[in-house]
Amino acid sequence: MAEMNEQLEKLAYEYQLLQAQAQLLAQNLELLTLGRNEFQAVKETLEELKKVEDEKPEILVPIGAGSFLRARIEDKENAIVSVGAGYAIEKNLDDAVTYLDARIKEYDDAIAKTQEGLKKLESQLGELAQKAQRIQQEQAMGFSVKK
Q1: Which residue spans adopt a coiled-coil conformation according to this UniProt entry (predicted)?
Q2: Domain map of the chain by residue range?
Q3: Relative to the CA of 96, which of 15, 27, 44, 46 has its CA 20 to 30 Å away?
Q4: Calpha distance 1→28 (Å, rounded)
């Protein structure tokens, strides 16, 4: 009986560890999805800008708290895109879209790997729960079933 309690405690500890890992992966997945969506929005904006016929189109520039300023785009052929670590470079719109596509693919790959890891953890959590349930059933019945 003491051995079964020890097994249950061990399973409970493993379960908590896996659950914490799963929670971290779920949070990471959410951050990756937000990042990917931001890059996608920028890409779509640049693609739409290429279709605009006005030489200096008017836009609304967000300044915070749901407020905007009217502005004109002086150079609609180029965009300044972030390349990470606080650096940005100027690219023509086609190159900027190509760069953003590559970044979106990186995010998609990271999202897929994170989802795969989360599925594995969920599977392990299910297995641990089943083991614990079997041990509890054996305890309730007062005997152990040999495998």
Answers
A1: 1-28, 104-138
A2: 2-50+93-141
A3: 27
A4: 41
Look up residue 55 and give its DSSP letter: S
Neighbours of 81 (CB within 10 A): 20
36: tokens are: 């990917």
Of 100, 93, 99, the closest CA to residue 75 belongs to: 93
* Geometric angle at alpha carbon 11, from 8 and 17, rounded to 5°: 145
pTM listed for this prediction:
0.79
Reading phi first (left if > 0) and then psi (alpha if -120 to 50, else beta), residue 72 is in beta
- The answer to whether domain 2-50+93-141 has CATH 1.10.530.10 is no
For residue 53, what is the DSSP state?
Answer: -
Report whether pLDDT(147) > 70.
no
User: How buried is residue 117: exposed, middle or buried, by Cβ count under 10 Å (0-12/13-18/19+)?
Assistant: middle
2: confidence class by pLDDT, cuts 50, 70, 90: confident
Which residues face 61 on adjacent strands?
69
Lowest mean pLDDT among 3-17, 32-46, 49-63, 113-127: 3-17
